[in-house]
Amino acid sequence: MYVAVKGGEAAIANAHKMLADRRRGDRSLPSITVEQIVEQLALAVDRVMAEASLYAPDLAALAVKQARGDMIEAIFLLRAYRTTLPRFGASQPVETGEMIAERRVSATYKDLPGGQVLGPTFDYTHRLLDPALAGDEAVETAPARDSEGEPLTRVADILAQEDLIERAFTGDSAEMPREPSGDLTREPMEFPMARDLRLQALARGDEGFLLALGYSTQRGYGRTHPFAGEIRIGEVEVEMDVPELGFAVSLGRIRVTECQMVNQFAGSAKLPPQFTRGYGLVFGQSERKAMAMALVDRSLRAGELGEDRVAPAQDEEFVISHADNVQATGFVEHLKLPHYVDFQAELDLVRRMRAEFEVRQSRDHDTQEAAE
Amino acid sequence: MSAAAALGEDLATYNFAYLDEQTKRMIRRAILKAIAIPGYQVPFASREMPMPYGWGTGGVQVTASIIGPQDVLKVIDQGADDTTNAVSIRAFFQKVASVAVTTKTREATIIQTRHRIPEEKLQAGQVLVYQVPIPEPLRFLEPRETETRKMHALEEYGLMHVKLYEDIARHGHIATTYAYPVLVAGRYVMDPSPTPKFDNPKMDMSDALQLFGAGREKRIYAIPPHTRVVSLDFEDHPFEIQTFDEPCALCGAEGVYLDEVILDDRGGRMFVCSDTDHCEDRRAAGHRGRLSPDEAYAGHGQVQEDTGR
């Protein structure tokens, strides 16, 4: 008996009921709260905010809960909400030099003004599972640093004093940034991209993808000789110009992670030998992402710096077109949608070609026999 | 009020047809440009939609930008109104735009489709919105967007003809059976989206407006009504559409696109109309196929083959 593939509507409704049921899990356990996710799964919330390009811890936590902990699904949920929000302006560039840094490390100097500040890092922990965490043991409050609250000199600025590193986009730089910078979620994307858009694409790009690409540059596929000049994590003020007022007003503070890579560059006839920069800036606390972003940013500047483009990480179209995990997951997973109409067309062609093949085979066979 | 409740209230409001009005205006501008340059891929700032990329976000954005409260929407996937993704997209527009929906091709003012063009001839005033995964017909010959845009600008389509020629040399046939490239208004080579080439002739000189939306790839293109659409071919290997050896097993239709349905694990199969509305229409008009049920077709979900088999 043939039963047509009907009743999609009821099937979808039931599937979603089942999803909600599985999401809730064992009803004898308390439901996890959004506040708990914000506080205790903060790095998951940070990743969702970073790759969704929306700084909203509560909403990101809600998305994590709704997505059952599936990060890309959570990012997707938050982006689909973000896209409907009206834009009423652009903030001023955040001044990371003024950051109240919770963590600041430099791999290029043993010590520097303000010191190396480790902050809340997994570094130097021994990755041994901690049975105590399975329970609800009291955790003591972390000691505060004496100098907490003071801005720290940027490592790149120290090098810039001697003119040993290329200038950032400030002052008399030939390549001044656009004001306000572009937004690829609001304008059509075109290649080659301006660096502001490229950085935006990287900032919301998939952490795993950028990590792998950054890693590939370290293994010789487009080597850039990087040093982690500085990584800092902390809160910065977001300010916006209000034309009616004539001055900038603060919208609040956000936590960001910034990475300045210091990379080698030999110089040319026109340019003196100088270090070059790769830049990473990510919402929340995510060193891995900021570092990978800085590596890839530097690699993508190959053309601008006159380097041969031979590796995947140097190929802007390849990197930017495939860095977005919401796009990638959508298109990969769309293969589970029905394709039977096209498959029928292929089936028909293969059958036809097989029939022709068999006719040819038997004809060749006959001629051979006749010849013998 | 708890934080969770406050969140819920903030989230509750969405604009008519989901997209904000500025976005719709931007998309309408892209659509107008696309209509003005038939077959040309217009870049647009595609938005994140609440369904995944690759699942019709381009088509949904086009539909959301042109739909009004008085429109009647039909959504098909693989020619059928009842495939899960079509059901989901139709439900989306019912929810965010509360528009009337239909499965009847002739009643719809907007038809969003994935992979098929309805069998029934479309009328003036109707809009067919295609969901497009890869808008670039040259993509699998040249992966770089910067290159393919140049090729279109220079009308440099030799590569495509070489590909079709190589198919013939290797297989004796042009081995492209769907997403078969067409030349629009004598200028741009265009990807008709992965519709089987069977549907290509329906695009030519259509009375309806045809809009193509590719969300992930951020492109919109169009075929205005009464535009020449020619499938690429060679004089000695003219373009041909698929033919089926048997008529639809349910409505007896010939010269329509059929789906192969496997009946058992012993090679039993039947061929039925891919266009479910067309098939139901014909059965309502009294047409019968080899396996149509004896009782008059009631139009509900289940179709059973006659027990005598």
Q: What percent of residues of chain B are in strands? A: 15-25%
- Helix percentage of chain A: 25-40%
Q: Assembly state here?
A: heterodimer
Number of helices of chain A: 12
Mean pLDDT, all residues of chain A: 89
The Rg value of chain A, from CA coordinates, equals 27 Å
Number of helices of chain B: 8
- SSE run of chain A: HHHHHEHHHEEEHHHH
Question: Spatial order of the strands in the main sheet of chain B?
Answer: 1-9-8-5-4-2-3
Distance between the termini of chain A: 52 Å
SS elements, strand count of chain B: 12
Strand order of the largest sheet of chain A: 1-2-3-4
The amount of beta strand of chain A, in percent, is 5-15%
Strand tally of chain A: 4
Radius of gyration of chain B: 21 Å
Overall residue-averaged pLDDT value of chain B: 90
Largest sheet of chain A: 4 strands, antiparallel
Domain count of chain A: the total is 2
Structural class of chain B: alpha/beta
**For the terminal residues of chain B, how far apart are their CA atoms?**
65 Å
Tell me about this structure:
The complex is a heterodimer of chains A (372) and B (309). Chain A is α+β, with helices and mostly antiparallel strands. Chain A is built from 12 helices and 4 strands; from the N terminus they run H-H-H-H-H-E-H-H-H-E-E-E-H-H-H-H. A 4-stranded antiparallel β-sheet of chain A has the order 1-2-3-4. The two termini of chain A are 52 Å apart. The relative contact order of chain A is 0.12. Chain B has 309 residues and is of the alpha/beta class. Chain B has 8 helices and 12 strands. Chain B has helices at 3-11, 21-36, 57-66, 84-97, 145-153, 158-171, 200-203, 276-284, and strands at 42-43, 72-77, 100-101, 110-114, 127-131, 182-184, 188-190, 209-214, 219-223, 229-231, 258-262, 269-273. In chain B, the strands form 3 sheets. Chain B has a 7-stranded mixed β-sheet. In chain B, helix 2 crosses helix 3. At the A-B interface, helix 1, helix 4, helix 5, helix 11 and helix 12 of A face helix 1, helix 4 and strand 11 of B.
